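Exercise (ungraded).
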Amino acid sequence: MPTLTINGTQVTVDEGTTILHAANSIGVQIPHFCYHPALSRPANCRMCLVEVKKANKPLPACYNFCTEGMVVETESDLTHRARKSVLEFILLNHPIDCPICDQAGECKLQDYYFAHSAQSSRLGELEKVHKVKAFPLGPEVVYDGERCILCTRCVRFCEEVTQTRDLTVIERNDLCEIRTFPGQELDNDYSLCTVDMCPVGALTDRNFRFKCRVWFMGSTPSICTGCAKGCNIYVDHFQGEVQRYRPRTNPAVNAFWLCDHGRRTRLRLHRDRLSAPSAGAHGACTSVIAITETVRRLRAFLKNNKGEQLAFIVSAESRNEDLLSVFDLAQRLGVQRCYLAAHPDDAFTLRRHPERHSDGILIQADKNPNRRGAETLAAAAGIALRPLSDLPNDFAAGDVRALWCFTEALPAAPELQQALVKAVKNHLVIYQAPYQSWLSAVANIALPTPSHVEMAGSFVNGDGLCQGFAQAFPAPKPVLPHRAWIAAIAQRLRVRLDHPDDAALAAEIARQLQQAPPTPASGG
Amino acid sequence: MNRDVLGTLELEVPLNTEAMILNMGPSHPATHGTVRFILTLDGETIIKFDTEIGYLHRGFEKSCEHATWQQVFPYTDRLNYVSPLINNFGYALTVEKLLGIKVTDRCEYIRTLMAEISRICDYLTCVGAGALELGAFTAFLYAIEGREFLWDLIEEVAGQRMMATYARIGGLANDLPPDFDAKWKALRPHLFYLLDTIDALLTRNRIFIDRMQGTGAISAQDALAHGFTGPCLRATGVDYDVRKTFPYHKYGEVEFDVVLGSRGDNYDRYRVRMEEMRQSIRIVDQCLAQMAPGPVTCDDPRVIIPPKDQTYNSIEGMIRHFKIIFEGTQVPPGEAYGYVEGGNGELGFYIVSLGSGRPWKIKVRPPCFYLMGALHKMVEGAMLADIIPTFDTINLIGGEIDR
């Protein structure tokens, strides 16, 4: 347990604590580029050099362990000089790219230069060394050699986290660049994490490059819906459009990472949206007409049939709040047949092992964010979730005579699709989901709902952890959450729901799951 | 002459009168600036005078909270838009106070002399427009001619005649043009000629004196109680001029007299302004004689954006420019009150920073707000026609009184 002095403050730390960690523990921030808490420490950027008394030169704080009686000065003249020199060196060949660089505004190099140096270069008229621009390293990542400061975070990430060893540093001195090994490309399932970790704008996301300046974007804490892992993310959005997903650090779930497949789920957020309600002969209509028509059709149906002949399709993708409302309604209407629609395990597979549905890092076989939530809440409501493949037969047997579908996540298998389209012919089909699908084409009534970034709510991940997410931006006007459609229709049907408002829902969810979702911290 | 049954003369019968409520403004030709007065009149005598400001409300203070410290300058231009440079400098001075930076000597000299030129513009407008509204159209033309020449000068310095945005935090947008000295020297005699002419037209003009002398008077005690500053306070005989009492910029190093009146009426306010213009010319002369060549911005790289050639040709300059423009100068947390002698008196800026690139709060002390607060005292009991000269010498500026 060495005791050392940092900027005049005594601090006792565990054996094997680095100076950087010790300083951090007393609120002293030491600037660094190459150091990353999840990776090894090569100490090659030299940005964290600090003055240590009795050492004959400044030492890298990320690499050196604290020793007994050490005296560290992070704001001394020597430290400041070291930082200025390092920054001047790093900037020697740095291109004048800020206006066209996606990193500008969240760039460590900008921040540190402005905070710790702000002095002019002594390079003068000398030409900078030019290197490769816009070099595609893989399907997701583009590399800019000139912006790269060679911190090797990306190289170490591929060695230590994914253990795929895709990247290396080639050449020597000021010709150094990051490259893949010959014949390979950066196509591991986590390649975009290198973009997050890159302290400058050297690595960029092909789907985000030049799309939106970072200072325009709002950032909302949310949950990735790619699989049952429930990775914590920030949804970065601008003018009601999601621009990118960024991992939100959570040691209990995803640490610092997020897989490429999860990030790609944002691409379908704004595609094929169900934008306005439609009801039978009315076509596209207002929500009031849609509700009236739904109630009329349901009344007519319930007059001639029993409630149990109405079937629900619920989703392993819906948030807990919506599921609870659906089960609530099911109980009131006497609906007994709830079929679970879910993304299949092969919704996406590993890039290098297409036969595998999961890896040991983040990607889960179950590609649904809330299967556990759906199962738990259904069980609590005394409803047995049935596989969707049973539905055509149940229609044929006359057990089901109308369908209310709460999801677009329907199986793509053509046999089931054809069977179901055939089965629902001449039956009432209410389709209530954020997106269009093959079922919405044959539905009598379509009611649009928000995507998960347009609502706050909670999911239960594969490990049974309930996690909350916040609303990034409101859905456009005629779009109402499942809960709101159900409440409006139930009211007109004179059906009293158990949990009429959001607070009652949240309390009931917390009770049934025996854990309350933590409210995610905003910002970031 | 007809007599009634009691034998009283018809003319002597007391008329059954009642007070008339008259609405003046908010868009009255004589209320330059949108302001509304609700007058209660007994004949031509004002019994009650209600002032209603707020017709010009852009939310200046709130807007500032969404701008970087630098982006506030154009807003300050639009406070007292007749002397915008003084507002620029007053705001810059306050932010510099919080930043703890010292601007260069040359910058302070330029700020001093440009503020005085701005002040002359302000007073010329006030005196000229005031005379115009009393029917003295000729005096107005002379005054505005002087202002035109001075605006030409300001345009050469700042690139804009009115909304100059000439100050920067830590300095100025640019140095004076090389021929500024010569141009000022050429303009100076003409300025004196114009002032003499206005003087000759107004100061001993019987009609003008009748309209101005003794009207709109306020005592020194009342003026102080209402928070008067500037020429309106000095006209009552109170010796308070921020430039003299709390010298800023280079006012401590130049000689000028504080002009005082004695009666606090419209005529005194007019005389104070006329004489102060001559004092301002004196200050400009001294500044030009005293100042030495040198930089006009401080050398703090975190406050001053680099020259364009550095921004475009070096990554260091580019980053500095980017950080200052996009995130704003990082002003340390704290609060400061900075005040200067504006066209109408003490113009104060109270600013609060939480350490970011944008102000947390900016509160302005607009001098004419306090003058307007006492306007009713100055005209109640007077004649309807006295409102015009009184309101003119009070010199309400709509942009400044933005509440």
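Further reading is listed at the end of the chapter. For now, observe: The mean pLDDT of chain B is 92. The two ends of chain B are 58 Å apart (CA to CA).
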